[in-house]
Design brief:
The protein has helices spanning 19-31, 35-52, 59-73, 112-124, 129-149, 156-166, 189-198. Helix 1 packs antiparallel against helix 2, helix 2 (35-52) packs across helix 3 and helix 5 crosses helix 6 (156-166). It is mostly helical.
Length: 199
């Protein structure tokens, strides 16, 4: 039985999206004895890479990128006449800067940052149709959030009180006349617990 060579024993892929076959072809092109042969081989390899690359780029951008990628995979050792100035890709192995996680001081986690930001904006808006529409959206979302967080603690009166507190008393709504959206009528939490105990 012939000896099997595993991928882990082979040279690491410089750009895995092109696969090992492309990398092997580029290594073969480097070894060709004449510049004319290397040039013809490189052109053929670029045709293969172009088919594998993102077709959403414009033709010129795609060509430039593919030639850059080939030069990178070849460790810039492929002696040919490139049709574009090659941009060196020196970012290999460099970890990107960590993305900072947004930290907001949220008063009530059941509402979240976006609701609280919306309520702050609401408090600064002048009276009118736009403010009424935003109030309706926020109030009904708060009601739904309370329902999802703890349906036993959800009430129109609580939402109205929370809106008044968040807006420092600027927005006062009557929970009895406000156009609330209906929330799906699911059983109370204690009812669900009783059913589980019976089983």
């Amino acid at each position: 039985m012939n000896e099997i060579t595993y991928n882990t024993e082979k040279e690491r892929l410089k750009m895995p999206e092109y696969g090992r076959a492309v990398q092997d072809m580029i290594q073969h092109a480097i070894q060709l004895p004449t510049k004319e042969e290397r040039q013809r081989c490189a052109q053929s390899i670029v045709e293969v890479m172009r088919r594998m690359a993102d077709s959403e780029l414009s033709r010129s951008d795609l060509e430039q990128r593919v030639w850059d990628h080939m030069a990178f995979i070849a460790d810039y050792k492929l002696d040919i006449d490139y049709p574009y100035p090659i941009t060196r890709l020196d970012s290999e192995g460099v970890k990107p800067e960590p993305i900072g996680y947004p930290t907001h001081n949220i008063q009530h986690h059941q509402y979240g940052h976006l609701i609280e930001a919306g309520l702050s904006r609401l408090a600064e808006m002048p009276e009118g149709e736009e403010r009424d529409q935003l109030l309706a959206l926020l109030a009904n979302q708060m009601k739904l959030s309370l329902f999802n967080w703890n349906r036993d603690g959800m009430s129109n009166e609580r939402v109205a009180a929370d809106i008044a507190r968040y807006t420092r008393g600027k927005i006062q709504l009557d929970p009895n006349t406000f156009p609330w959206n209906s929330v799906v009528n699911l059983p109370k939490a204690e009812t669900l617990l009783k059913k589980k105990k019976r089983k």
